[in-house]
Automatic annotation (TrEMBL), chains A, B:
UniProt subunit comment: Homodimer which binds Holliday junction (HJ) DNA. The HJ becomes 2-fold symmetrical on binding to RuvC with unstacked arms; it has a different conformation from HJ DNA in complex with RuvA. In the full resolvosome a probable DNA-RuvA(4)-RuvB(12)-RuvC(2) complex forms which resolves the HJ.
Protein task: The RuvA-RuvB-RuvC complex processes Holliday junction (HJ) DNA during genetic recombination and DNA repair. Endonuclease that resolves HJ intermediates. Cleaves cruciform DNA by making single-stranded nicks across the HJ at symmetrical positions within the homologous arms, yielding a 5'-phosphate and a 3'-hydroxyl group; requires a central core of homology in the junction. The consensus cleavage sequence is 5'-(A/T)TT(C/G)-3'. Cleavage occurs on the 3'-side of the TT dinucleotide at the point of strand exchange.
Stored InterPro entries: RNaseH-like_sf, RNaseH_sf, X-over_junc_endoDNase_Mg_BS, X-over_junc_endoDNase_RuvC
Gene for this chain: ruvC
Protein name: Crossover junction endodeoxyribonuclease RuvC
PANTHER family: CROSSOVER JUNCTION ENDODEOXYRIBONUCLEASE RUVC
Native source organism of the sequence: Streptomyces sannanensis
Length: 177, 177
């Protein structure tokens, strides 16, 4: 499975592509950051993020896109921009028919470090180890995007089983309604 | 000036097109709601909103799009969806090179009723009167979209003067830097 992970943000949107299956060594295919100037209009920044994400999708043809789930409890000043950037990432993927998975920051941390309360350095260290890199990817947004992709590769089998169960439940409810 | 107003939301995205200039009677060219099913995946809902907004832009060719500015102080459960829907509206407009204006709910209320603390009914009543309609547009999201467009037509001259002043200031700063 090839996954594009997106750590959404208006100023820095981390992107990372990882390929692999659970229980086997993972391979990093690419990592980077889509940046937009802080003094540009929000609408123009969203267009630049769309262009950047589309370029990553064209270049790497992932089967799935994993995006960080944004919570409104976060920093009030930045959360709106994060929500808007995540909307663009989801839109770019769904428009191509690619499945979009959302993972919370603690799910991602727990997946790669074993604890949902890990700090940035710990996540960076584990991403470096799991992908056999020479150094942690910089900036942290890039490392977080790779961690999201890894988290999705490892969690997807369980998530798919859950979605199938929900679909079966809905179908049965429809039949008895 | 022809303006598309967008009251963003995932479940109901109000859209309304108004044409006019300050100090002259205004004309409504269209009003409606882009709806997406609450049980669909967020990514698919964003694609449906994109399609809906693009259809309105194609049909009415506005010169400008006015979108409600979303604040994170609002209802925590709905604010993320509102931010995401507003991102799609801004993206659709900016991708076509259309200017995007953001107005706060109290700016819109103050523009059409004279007070920033007006309720939904008061806004609906003034929209009905200003556009010479037979009845207030339903649902409230549709009336709010028209109010946004009216607000923009009336505020745009002042906003343009402000933007020109900022541009001149930046250009002068650049020259002395």
């Amino acid at each position: 499975m090839r996954v594009l992970g997106v750590d959404p943000g208006l100023t820095r949107c981390g992107v990372g592509v990882v390929e692999g299956i659970p229980g086997r060594p993972l391979t990093m295919l690419g990592v980077g950051v889509v940046r937009t100037p802080a003094d540009a209009e929000t609408a123009d920044r969203l267009v630049a993020i769309e262009r950047g994400i589309d370029e990553w999708l064209d270049a790497h043809r992932p089967e799935c896109v994993a995006v960080e789930r944004v919570f409104s409890q976060h920093n009030v000043r930045t959360v709106m921009g994060t929500a808007q950037a995540s909307a663009v990432a989801m839109l770019c993927a769904a428009r191509r028919g690619l499945p979009v998975a959302l993972h919370t920051p603690s799910e991602v941390k727990a997946a790669v470090t074993g604890t949902g309360r890990a700090d940035k350095a710990q996540v960076g260290a584990m991403v470096t180890r799991l992908l056999r890199l020479d150094a942690p990817p910089k900036p942290a947004d890039a490392a977080d995007a790779l961690a999201l992709a890894i988290c999705h590769i490892w969690r997807a089998p369980a998530q798919n089983r859950l979605q199938q169960a929900v679909a079966v439940h809905r179908a049965m409810k429809g039949r008895t309604a």
